[in-house]
Design a protein that fits this description.
It contains 14 helices and 17 strands. The protein is α/β, with parallel strands linked by helices. It has 2 domains: 138 residues, Aspartate Aminotransferase, domain 1; 254 residues, Type I PLP-dependent aspartate aminotransferase-like (Major domain) (Aspartate Aminotransferase, domain 2). Bound molecules: pyridoxal-5'-phosphate. The site of pyridoxal-5'-phosphate has 14 residues, from α4.
Length: 416
């Protein structure tokens, strides 16, 4: 059971206590203790999330928003409580501004499709950046193909920072929307969202923030950021796969047409005319991932119990330590050295393909990601096919970093 939140919160995160909440961290791989440093791909799940899923399926499983019977009411209450948890987690003004999706990708697709139909016409422009995940590139390319709109891309510097001067140049009265990541999964760069929102709004453009990576590393307040849309994905928030959330500003969501048709998203259906349900149900066609929402609710409450401020301080310490230790490895070059960075260390090693790095460190029990990280344009920008990437989360420790450094020494020996 989790002990988080039981005693008054000390300033410093008790990481050993946190680790006890994550059963998977006790397992071994290739005979070595697991060192999990692939959090940017997905995070592990704490016991309270597993318990919530088990409790839901063993105690209250039923369909939502339909039955008058008790189980259906309990399932509906649990589902809507999950929405309120996500609302509080993102500090949205209204629970109805939280739309459940399958993941972050579906959140972006929903906006590209629905906002696109409302606002985007031929020769209009969409602005994205050179450090976006494919999930925040391809939906906009599809929108542009469909409408004849034009995609503009803000370039990045050698350090992996956005060229805000270039962004200012690209923003015009034709810009309908700016889509930008809060935290780059390939480079670790944290983007200055309030500044970007101010620039975009000045030109009458809406802003979608891809928060898939940011939301488990730093506090997110959508009202303070000022953005119009913010997407998150449950499996990176220590929650289940298959569930995500889209925050949208109420007035915009109300004006936008439905994304998909089906049960729950309608008020009445006849063959002549169908009227749509209110927010948020208008955007949630069909039986939702009820258990996923219950698990996501438990996950964000778990994070809130620890406190994202404390998590950010813990991870900043680890990031500084890891940066210094990695810089000592001969022939290693960090990709992404922005001034404002979080929890992600992408690197290349002279003369060794990233795939070989990943394979050899895996034999030592260290899980990292290798490849293009769904950000091929970033790799192209830095003239490399791939990187190795270590990414941190709440349960990582300095000794995890030490294990990575030892494993990288093995890589050096193999390729000496
Ligand atoms: C993981 C990630 C996504 C995609 O999340 P899904 O859960 O696969 O939809 C999008 N953007 C960033 C920055 C990510 O890290």
């Amino acid at each position: 059971m989790s002990g988080i939140g039981v005693k008054p919160q000390p300033d410093v995160l008790d990481v050993e206590r946190v680790r006890e909440d994550f059963p998977i961290l006790g397992r071994r791989v290739h005979g070595k203790p697991l060192v999990y440093l692939d959090n940017a791909a997905t995070t592990q799940k704490p016991q309270p999330v597993l318990d919530a899923l088990f409790r839901y399926y063993t105690g209250s499983n039923a369909n939502v928003h339909r039955g008058v019977h008790l189980l259906s009411q309990e399932a509906t209450d649990a589902f809507e409580a999950g929405r309120v948890s996500v609302q509080r987690f993102l500090n949205a003004a209204h629970a109805s501004e939280i739309i459940f999706t399958r993941n972050a990708s579906e959140g972006v697709n929903l906006v590209a499709e629905s906002f696109g139909r409302l606002k985007v016409r031929a020769a209009d422009e969409i602005v994205i950046t050179g450090m976006e995940h494919h999930s925040n590139i391809v939906p906009w390319q599809l929108l542009c193909e469909r409408t004849g709109a034009i995609l503009r891309v803000v370039p990045i510097t050698d350090e992996g920072e956005l060229r805000l001067d270039e962004m200012e140049r690209l923003l015009t009265e034709r810009t309908r929307l700016v889509a930008v990541t809060h935290l780059s999964n390939a480079l670790g760069t944290v983007n200055p969202i309030p500044t970007i929102v101010e620039m975009a709004h000045h030109h009458g453009a809406a802003v979608l923030v891809d928060g898939a990576q940011a939301a488990y590393h730093m506090p997110v307040d959508v009202q303070a950021l000022g953005c119009d849309f913010y997407v998150v994905t449950g499996h990176k928030l220590y929650g289940p796969t298959g569930i995500g959330a889209l925050y949208g500003r109420q007035a915009l969501l109300e004006a936008m047409p439905p994304y998909q048709g089906g049960g729950d998203m309608i008020r009445s259906v006849t063959f002549e005319k169908t009227t749509y349900n209110d927010l948020p149900h208008k955007f949630e066609a069909g039986t939702p991932h009820i258990a996923g929402v219950v698990g996501l609710g438990a996950a964000v409450e778990y994070i809130r119990g620890i406190g994202l401020d404390r998590i950010a301080v813990h991870e900043r310490d680890l990031l500084e330590y890891a940066t210094a230790r990695l810089n000592e490895v001969p022939g290693l070059r960090l990709i992404g050295t922005a001034r404002h960075k979080a929890s992600i260390l992408s690197f290349v090693l002279d003369g060794v393909h990233p795939h070989d790095i990943g394979t050899i460190v895996d034999r030592e029990g260290v899980a990292i990601r290798t490849g293009h990280h769904c950000a091929q344009p970033v790799m192209e920008r830095f003239g490399i096919p791939a990187t190795a990437r270590a990414s941190l989360a709440v349960y990582n420790t300095r000794s995890d970093i030490d294990a990575l450094i030892r494993a990288l020494r093995k890589v050096r020996e193999v390729f000496a």
